[in-house]
Write a structure and sequence with these properties.
Number of domains: 1
Strand content: 25-35%
Distance between the termini: 26 Å
Bound molecules: flavin mononucleotide
Structural class: alpha+beta
Largest sheet: 5 strands, mixed
Shape: globular
Order of helices and strands: EHEEHEEHEEH
Radius of gyration: 14 Å
Strand order of the largest sheet: 4-1-3-2-5
């Protein structure tokens, strides 16, 4: 099992309709390819974690990297993992812009800001921390 995380900048302002259209394609495709993960979006950036078989994760990443809806992709991490972290989600979407103000300011205190938006992290351990914080919202 492999896991890849990357950050990118959207070419247009992100709203839920954009995230949702990505999720719609992702849910069908990812299920077929045994890929699971999470897509976190602010108004300006994406942070996505993909996990699954080596070939499938690689192939999907290169498809996504060519998608004209975003640019400036940065790989945060890629490696072999013992098991999935997101086995319940073919692709779970989280719009940071949809969170309430209290939560958002808490996250900004931890992770910082980038152009007024929550700064999506580029260090692997910070990504794990952010995912953990987001997971708690579902519990
Ligand atoms: C930020 C971002 C994340 C994406 N994530 C996925 C994904 O997890 N799975 C997927 O199949 N497509 C994803 N896409 C879409 C792909 O780039 C591509 O448009 C899609 O896979 C094409 O699918 P189709 O051949 O079924 O039309 C993503 C696009 C963007 C911009």
């Amino acid at each position: 099992m492999y896991r890849l995380a990357y950050k990118s900048r959207s070419r247009t302002p992100i709203d839920w309709a954009l995230v949702d259209s990505i999720l719609e394609t992702s849910n069908t495709n990812n299920m077929e390819r045994e890929i699971t993960g999470i897509l976190i979006a602010t108004r300006t950036h994406f942070l996505q974690v993909l996990e699954g078989p080596f070939e499938a994760v690689n192939a999907l990443f290169y498809t996504i990297a060519r998608d004209a809806r975003h640019e400036a992709l940065q790989i945060v991490s890629f490696g072999c993992v013992e098991r999935r972290s997101f086995d319940e989600w073919a692709m779970h979407g989280v719009g940071i812009f949809g969170l309430n103000d209290t939560l958002l300011s808490q996250l900004k205190t931890t992770h910082g800001e980038e152009g007024g938006e929550l700064r999506l992290p580029t260090a692997e351990w910070q990504v794990a921390a952010l995912v953990q914080e987001i997971r708690q919202l579902h519990d």
